[in-house]
C-alpha cells in the first residue's frame, strides 16, 4: 500500500495515499463550496440591486443603493461611482466610505480608452506595479487591487464603478462579469432617473416665459411660508396683473402679447433679489414671493416693478402698464390661501382705483 510521510507535532506520521486523496478532495470541495456560496451571494445581491433600482427614480438614491449593495457583495472592499463629464473627465460622486467628498479621478489614457471607447472592464491586481496608472490615481489607491467597469447608457459611457480592495488579489472572470451586469443595470436606472428628474423640472416651469408655473408657485410658496413660520420672520406676496392685456392681444395679436409676457417676466427677474421667486400664475397674472420682506418693503418692490414696466421700451406705439396687490405674513394671513386672497383683494383695489398702481391690503 502506498503511504505518505507527514510531519505533525514532532512525529513523523505515515498516511495511506487514499487518505491523502480524501483530504485533498475534501479541501477542494470546501474551497469550491465557499466560492459557490460567495458567487451565489453576489448574484442574489445583483437581483436585489435590480429590485431596489425599480423602486426609485431619484439619481441620488440610485447612487446610494449602488455603492451600498456592491460594497456588501465584495466584503472588505470599498465601492465608488464616478460620472463622466463633457470634457472626458471622471468625477467620483458616491462612495461606500464614510465622510466621503467628491473628487476627480484621472485614470490615464490607456484605461480611460478601455472603459469609455471599448466599454470593457479593467482589473488591476496591484496599483503600485501598473505602469498605465497616473500618479494622481496611485496616490489615492496606493498598493490596492481595483476593479473598474464602465457605466453605459444608450450606447455611450456615462461613468464608471470602482471596487477597491486593500488586500492584493486577483479579480476573476466571474467577478468581472458580475460587475458588468451591475454597472449595466446602473446605467439604465441612472438614465431613467435623469430623464424623470428632467421632466419633473420642466413641469415646474412655464413654457413661454421660463419662470415658475402655478404648480411650482404653490410648492415654493408653501416651503417659504413654512420657513418663515419656523424662523418667525416676515414674508410677502405681490400679485401683478397686466392692464388691458386683452386689448393688447386684440389689437396687436397674440404673438405680440406673448412677447409682452416674456419681456415682463425677464424685467421682474432682473428687479428681484436672488432669494425672491416670480411665477406665472395664469394668463397675464404673476405672483412674486418675497421671503423676509414686510408689507412696506413689498410695496416698494411692487412700485419699482410698476415704474420699470411703464418706462420700458415696448413695441412702437404700444403702452404697457401693470397693477399690483400686496399681502404679508403674518398680518394679512397665516396660511397661503389667506395671503393669496388678500393679495388678490389688494390687486382688485388697484384695478378699480384706476390701474397702473400698487396697493396693499
Explain the overall architecture.
The protein is α+β, with helices and mostly antiparallel strands and 361 residues long. Helices cover 48% and strands 23% of the residues. The protein has 10 helices and 13 strands. The strands form 3 sheets. The chain has a 6-stranded antiparallel β-sheet with strand order 5-4-3-8-7-6, sandwiched between helices. Strands 10-11-9-12-13 form a 5-stranded mixed β-sheet, sandwiched between helices. Strands 1-2 form a two-stranded antiparallel sheet.
Q: Describe the sheet with the most strands.
A: 6 strands, antiparallel
Number of strands: 13
Please bin the fraction of helical residues.
40-55%
List unreliable stretches of 5+ residues: 1-8
Q: What is the helix/strand order?
A: EEHHEEEHEHEEHHEHHEEHEHE
- Bin the strand percentage: 15-25%
Mean pLDDT: 88
**Order of adjacent strands in the largest pleated sheet:** 5-4-3-8-7-6
> What separation lies between the terminal Cα atoms?
110 Å
The shape is: elongated
Secondary structure elements and their pairing?
Elements (H helix, E strand, L loop, with lengths): L2 E6 L2 E6 H37 L5 H15 L3 E8 L5 E6 L7 E3 L3 H8 L5 E3 L10 H6 L4 E9 L2 E10 L7 H30 L11 H18 L3 E8 L2 H8 L1 H18 L5 E6 L2 E7 L3 H16 L11 E8 L6 H17 L5 E3 L1
Parallel strand pairs: 12-13
Antiparallel strand pairs: 1-2, 3-4, 3-8, 4-5, 6-7, 7-8, 9-11, 9-12, 10-11
Helix pairs in contact: 1-2, 1-5, 2-5, 7-8, 8-9
